[in-house]
User: Fold these one by one.
Assistant:
Number 1:
Amino acid sequence: YVYAWDAQGKLLPHFPVETNPVFSAPGVANPDNRVQRGIFSAAALADLQGNGQLDIVASGMDRHLYAWQSNGSPAPGFPVLVVNPSKVASVNPVNNQVTFTASSDVMQGTKLMDTPAVGNLNGGSGPPDLILGSNEQYKGTPNASLGSLAGILKLAGVASDGGNSMVYAVYPDGSLHPAAAGAPDPPGYPNPGAFLPGWPVTIADLTPGVLPDVGDGVTSSPALASTSVQSGESSTGTASGNSGTAGTTGTAGATVLLAQLVLQVCQELQVSLVPLVQGAILQRALRHRHKILLWMSA
């Protein structure tokens, strides 16, 4: 549920509002549809219709992005099913249960856990776009520019079981936005035109499935910033500690901060890197992203 109160603490008319229970009914859930009813993250406010009235935006644990108007009714074009359409074979038109393609390499299809970022990625003063990450995870080479760090992760046994999660940019009119020519449109998919061109983008997830929900895919909320190159860029990270930046066309990269920390510590202490990487303690720390405590005795 989402609640709204006035300045005197009185519940506003038509509130609370709720997610659609059909999307998280018992018959929907399976390994590829790990959905639940409810909202985990905070709501955001945005004038999605350009009428001077703020709408309420929230990510649902049923894999839908919701938006409600001030009178409690859904904003036009919402909710939006958030799952990569290029990986989808079909969608049940009643409950939006997703069937993935045989070649999708899906590891799990699941919830939305982060608060959407609000901003116009292409500049201007019109209704803003909505940027959010997903818990969904797919097998494949992690989308990360690791450089020399790739060897470190290989020694630690991390890179071999990595994958990618997804970050989305959604039009302010959601499912009402017309699909571009050639956009993926699998049978039953309710909103083939909802995502900006080039989105979703992949973001590296080096240790998929570490923990349910909070340890899967993207769980940190994106942030937006203007740069001298792009009108706006979004930045977020996966639960396994990898941060990425995506421009308006969806080009993404990632940095492995943990491995950089290991390198820095080894340089400062003048310790050989190879024994540390081969050590069982560090292997477990890299695999599970625990805080590293280096204890050294004389």
Note: Residues 237-243, 249-260, 284-298 have pLDDT under 50 and may be disordered.
Number 2:
Amino acid sequence: MRTGLLCIGVSYESAPVQLREKLQQIHSNDATRAQTDRLLAETVSCPGFVLLSTCNRTELYISLDSDLPEAGEEAARSQCVERVSAFLADHGGVSSRRFAEYMYRFDDEEAVNHLCRVACGLESMMVGETQILGQVTRAFERAREAGTVDSTLEIAAMRAIRAGKRARTETGISRNAASIGSAAVSEAKRRAGGFTDATVLLVGAGEMGYEAIEALRSSGAKRTVVASRTIERARSLCKGTDAEPTTIDRLDELLCDADIVVSGTGSDEPVITAEALRGCVDERDSGAAAVTAGEEQPANAGDRSEAEPPRTTAGEVATSDRRRPEIIILDIAVPRDVEPACGELDGVTLLDIDELGRLAQDGKADRDRELPKVEAIIAEELARFEREMRLAEVRPVLRDMRRHAERER
């Protein structure tokens, strides 16, 4: 069925995080959204469009002019793809040819099907995660406020959001589904061998911060510190937990005390730099060396003759070589919060959102068994979309017929 819909986008499956973080910036706040929407309106030149921009995907859903003949629509579609690709390539800092290698495209009902799959969490890095449904809903709400949602996009949104809600209430697709925030905490705990003696620093109080703090509630961490741009946001996140709220202004100091760092601020620029982290690593090593140097010597050390070198046991060798445990940093933000060079420092392990996605697949087999049920729901909602589109086509004709009949009375 020709619907006039078109989807153009990139995701974690098709494009590297370096490109995605640049594209995410074009819709990261109210000012950039307004500017981007204005530029897109000039670029698209179509009745409607909706931009869905998350950490893992940037997708543009476009409604073409439904009154065009088939040949005219194809020409308009090709021109639209070319213009939008150039727009996204430019903002992503890559050539149009390179962007074409990362881009995917869906037409007509395939575009609606893809939107439904996204809303249901089937296209998410963590299959079945619930955050994406809210992100889809908010993307269409913002587009309505901007006046860029036409009737076709409205029907598509209705069916996709309905599919997403049904998938989570009628199937087990979201049962035990890991979020990026909870996956980061689980991976940090695995790598650290537990949190009993660890100080955990959570940087950022956004949605992923809430997911991470929920996972930290039962983690057994010795100390948890939450740093946000405002103390109010940090306190809000810490409510009901033993975590300590503070502001991001103290970040350099906090990094020196932290064993595990989970960062997801939504900042356009890195908040943790290699230079700042290098200073923390040096300070930690200096502190560990001072502790070692001050340890009590064996009781008979003063009885040895000058000619006899001190004996060193295997345990003492380990003690004299002892360093503070490495800092484990999990960057769950897009754009990235942590400069990639931080991962090259001695004593630092850095994992970004793509690496976490590959590592955190607990419960995937159980969720995979739910896929046929979700796909059946999507098929039902697609059938409803098609019926509603046909009704939308005949409604003007029926209205005109009714008006004509009334005039003939």
Note: Residues 371-408 form the longest helix (38 residues).
